[in-house]
Design goal:
- The chain is built from 4 helices and 6 strands.
- It is an alpha+beta fold and about 120 residues long.
- The chain has a 4-stranded antiparallel sheet with strand order 2-5-1-6. Strands 3-4 form a two-stranded antiparallel sheet.
- A hairpin with a 2-residue loop joins strand 3 and strand 4.
- It is flat, with a radius of gyration of 16 Å.
Length: about 120
């Protein structure tokens, strides 16, 4: 079964926030890059992409035939979606094990594991 692993930023320091990123040592920064590389190299993983901050998003709705476009979403940083990847796993336990290896899971963020519906 395929799972989408949604990476929620939480308080995870990222290179997009140089001040927070600078709180990590060079070794910690390199370990994070290495851990993401190892996760992406895991068989069954289709690497996703990081996402720009939520304030760069545009939300589109259609109501009564009219297209409504708004900036945002406006979410708390802890709720912000920071990236994603797809993992074809034997089962949910395997997907959870991979999610636990994603650095954001241990650095203040969270990983949402969701099965993908296949039509």
């Amino acid at each position: 079964m395929k799972y989408m692993l949604l990476i929620h930023q939480g308080t995870t320091p990222t290179p997009l926030d140089p001040e927070a990123w600078a709180t990590l040592s060079e070794d910690e920064q390199q370990q994070i890059y290495a851990d993401y590389g190892a996760v992406n190299a895991t068989p069954g993983v289709t690497p996703g992409n990081g996402l720009q901050p939520p304030e760069t998003a545009t939300t589109v709705r259609v109501e009564d035939g009219r297209t409504l476009v708004t900036d945002g979403p406006f979410v708390e940083v802890k709720e912000a979606l920071n990236g994603y990847l797809i993992y074809e796993a034997d089962d949910l336990d395997a997907a959870i094990a991979l999610a636990a290896r994603i650095p954001a899971a241990r650095l203040g963020g969270a990983i949402e594991v969701r099965p993908i519906m296949e039509w």
